[in-house]
Amino acid sequence: MIELDRVSRWFGLVIGLNDVTANIGPGITALLGQNGAGKTTMIRMITGQIKPTTGSIRIFGEEPFANPNVFRRLGYCPEIDQFYENMTGREFVVHMARLSDFNATEASLRAEQMLTLVGMIDRCDKRIAGYSKGMRQRIKLAQAMLHDPDIILLDEPLNGLDPVGRHEFMQVVGHLAARGKCVIISSHILSEVEQLTQNIFLLHRGRLLATGDLTTIRGLIDKHPHRIKIETPEPRRVASALLPLESVLSVSMDKDGSVELEVRNAGLFYPAFADIALDQNLPIYGLHSPDNNLESVFQYLVGG
Amino acid sequence: MALYVFTSTLREFLSLRRAAIWIIAVLAVCGLGFVWLNFTGNLGTETGYARLIGIMGFRIIALISAVFSTAVIAGEVEQKTIVYLLTRPIPRPVLIIARALASVVTVAVIASLMVFVMGLMNFGLGTFTNGMVWRDVAAVSLGAGAYGGLFLFVSMLLNRAFLFCLLFAFGWEVFVPQMPGDLYFASIHSHMRALTLHPVSAQPTPALSNLTTGGADSAIGIPWGVALATLLGCWILFTALSAVWFQNSEYVPREDAE
Prior knowledge:
heterodimer; A: alpha/beta; six-stranded mixed beta sheet; four-stranded antiparallel beta sheet; 11 helices; B: mainly alpha; 0% strand
């Protein structure tokens, strides 16, 4: 559906996207990267708002820039939080439907359906100016889907959504993917998209750092030492119980009373840790890994 | 789709709140004109009306045009709502031309309203049968098109286009018609005045007064047909250039550009 061939984009002396080649097909694909990684630049090029400086982009075999044929099959939920504030949610979605070449009756019908789908039907007749961040996100999502596009690009769509909203959103996205749509979701939070898809594109400073299955990428990460912090009232006992494990490289006690481990293979460590904790009845109040975030992933992958 | 873009933009530009603001502005300008007429003594209805239109009416059109022309695309870029327009299956030239036409119609409506109010101040109910008033309505409508096209193109090219449009309206358009030789041909204001066929005052106008009144009483040597062709040409040419530019340029919210 989407083909990027050695695409680069410069903004003056700053490079936004650097020599990216990729093919994106049906299903959910997560575009991951920290702020400034080039996610929005890539999305803007796919949505035909900006042109690549070098290389080419093809959507269904056509160049997307200012191309209405492409826009008929593409829905876009932008990251920006701007609207026509004086309109109501319903007016806005109907307006977008009319701009998608639907007549007044069809536009109203589709707006009604989409507003129901995103859970805004009971609040859509209030002015957008009074909407919360989550309500605005839902309206943006509704306008992106109303013309039943084959490709849907969602730029940081989970920003501002409450847990219930996230759950509903994930259901909608899953439903779209099940219908064979190509859904691209950008995010800078790994755990956020992990629940949606295993298929990721990892961008870092404009470069495509890794693509493919998240499990494989996690495997690559797990080859590197991984820090795990355990909160316990008995740090010495926990440390002595875990030290014999083959995957544990080092153990240190923090000033706050917690235990910090450095493990070789986190995938092997976690099941073994669960067994020991149960067998020896270790008092564990909390467990988290400072390395289990996107920043650490990038550090591992770029060898930083 | 073009019709929908045109009507929805027209509704936006002539919304109740905006319309109320402009009606108040028109009445304020006309009130100022009424005071001015009372201070200038007995000019006669036709001369008084012609001067009022020349000094105030035609100047205000450039200002109103600057406001609405920069709202066509530059306003959407500023508000960051341009993204919704540019990712819809509507050809960009259709989008810009339909919106530009709506802005010109809006300016023409407001300017015509002003002409009628100024006419009522001088001719009373005879305004609606007065040929001069109707010629002025045609002139301000064409002027709205010419200014609209030019300012739209400026807003395609430059950031903070409104400022440049104001400089043109109250700098170039005031001083160029006063310059020696045939430079007045380079002013939209001069062409609008040439279209109106207003009577030339019998009294010679001192140079300084001429400057401040925008040459309201100076004879314009532009033939009627040339003025008509120039205003129409300016409107069509600059709108077409804007459409071509818009089709090939990138418009993303600037502060968001990575």
